[in-house]
Amino acid sequence: MPKTDSKPKAAANIAPGDNRQKPYRNPWFVVPFAVTAVLGMVVLRACGKGPDDDDGVNRSAPIHSAEAMQRGNSLAGRNGAAAAKAPAAKTAADSGAENVSPKPRSVLCTMVYPTTVDLARPDAKNFVPTNPEHPESALFGSVRTGSDGRARFHKGVDIAPQKKDRKGRALDSVYAVAAGRVAYVNRVAGDSNYGIHVVLLHSDPIGDVYTLYAHLASVADGLKVGQTVEPGTVLGVMGNTANSAIPLWRSHLHFEVGLVHSSRFGAWCDENGVKPNRGNFHGWNMHPVNPLTFFPHFARHATTTFGEYLATVPAGVELVVANPKNRIPEYFGRYPSLWNGPVAWSGPIVLSVSDSGLILGGRPANEAECETLAQSKARAAILAVHENILGRNGVRLVAKDGKGWVLGKALTRWLDTLWY
Predict the structure, then answer these.
(1) Domain 27-54+109-300, second-level architecture
(2) Alpha-carbon gap, residue 166 to 178, rounded angstroms
(3) Which of 106, 138, 312, 376 can pair with 305 through a Cys bridge, CB separation 3.0 to 4.6 Å?
(4) What is the pLDDT of residue 11?
(5) Residues paired with residue 351 on neighbouring β-strands, in sequence order
(6) pTM here?
(7) In percent, how much of the chain has pLDDT > 70?
(8) Which positions ≥6 away from 55 have C-beta within 8 Å?
(9) Residue 245's pLDDT is what?
């Protein structure tokens, strides 16, 4: 494996500020007056911040390496020290309450970045667009356009190399962002849109959270499924592999973080002839969140969870869905805190869904919603569409025609696998 430049950076210590996460702002509203300036603005907007927003963030806070984390300078440890200097909030213990259970801890509270780039305070030069004229294409969301002229959803961020060899090949190591286990390893470059890639699962009170590291030049020797990793474990080297050519100048790490849609996706692939069968870790079955809001959230809060972060992610669409199995989807068995209702429920359900297709929550449908579904004579009906969140709507679970919003073709597979 080529020698790399430095160790991963731990998430920065950020002073307490505004805890409210602002919705993702569509970067297509940025006016391009110069490529660098545009990307700088787009990055800020993708983080849910405008350049003049005062969010209480200490943007000059030091960045610590993985080695420094081992000396106690982790995100949680350093935020805890900062909090000790600030006026303490009144707790249940202060009020005389006894036997208060400690808050479940997420391994995501002790993270490093996947490369040496600081993703809590991103810089324009640290992302690689598909075309310099469209800098937003390096970011998360409906930021790309297919050959048919329709929007395409980019499920992660494309992080630029910080060091190259004389031939222009990236030398950056790619690191596990948090403690977890290896769920999937693909070492065949032409076998996937992701190229050579690794998927990890991380324990969080909400359930398993996945992270994905794609377009690698190589995977670390000996890395295998089932292996445990720590923050900063080297997974491989940044590259430009894929099943279609990525030019050398566009070498980058595609990074994703999110939740797994179905635990039976591999069986569904077998039944439907989907090849190669990657088990549960096919791109169709992994629904992400925006890394450029995810990392700042965890940098702000010492003891947060993925569920608390997910509560800040806005819904793009709300659906009422028929219940062909007379039970709640197994998704809510793996992520039980996202279900708001009785476990034994056999009627229609309402789902709140993000712009990426990630289920943010579910509950039993009320009488009026059940009637809406019945009148639609379909397996699902639209209750609400938040166009400002969907933006260009690259996922297309719903679609807009001349008469308004209708169910999209992509919803069929999404529902099939949800209930499989």
Answers:
(1) Distorted Sandwich (2.70)
(2) 32
(3) 106
(4) 56
(5) 319, 362
(6) 0.81
(7) 76
(8) 17, 18, 49
(9) 85
**What's the distance, CA 260 to chain centroid?**
11
- The residue written with tokens 């991963």 in the block is 8
> Which residues, in sequence order, are CB contacts of 355 under 8 Å at separation 6+?
24, 141, 142, 153, 316, 389, 390, 391, 393, 395
Parse the chain into domains and list their residue ranges: 27-54+109-300, 314-419
**Three-state SS letters, the chain:** CCCCCCCCEECCCCCCCCCCCCCCCCHHHCCCCCHHHHHHHHHHHHCCCCCCCCCCCCCCCCCCEHHHHCCCCCHHHHHHHHHHHCCCCCCCCCCCCCCCCCCCCCHHHCCECCCCCCCCCCCHHHECCCCCCCHHHHCCEEEEECCCCCEEEECCEEECCCCECCCCCECCEEECCCCEEEEEEECCHHHCCCCEEEEEEECCCCCCEEEEEEEEEEECCCCCCCCEECCCCEEEEEECCCCCCCCHHHCEEEEEEEEECCCCHHHHHHHHCCCCCCCCCCHHHEEEECHHHHHHHHHHCCCCCHHHHHCCCCCCEEEEECCCCCCCCCHHHHCHHHECCCCCCCCCEEEEECCCCCEEEEEECCHHHHHHHHHHCCCEEEEEECHHHHCCCCCCCEEEECCEEEECCHHHHHHHHHHC
pLDDT band at 9 (very low <50, low <70, confident <90, very high): low
Average pLDDT of span 44-59: 38
Structure tokens at 317: 């669409």
- Tell me whether residue 147 is exposed, middle or buried, using C-beta atoms within 10 angstroms of its C-beta: 0 to 12, 13 to 18, 19 or more: exposed
CA-closest candidate to residue 397, choices 310, 264, 383, 276: 383
Q: 267: which 2 tokens?
A: 């069986």
Residue 336: how many CB atoms within 10 A of its CB?
Answer: 12
| CA angle centred on 260, ends 259 and 263, rounded to 5° | 150
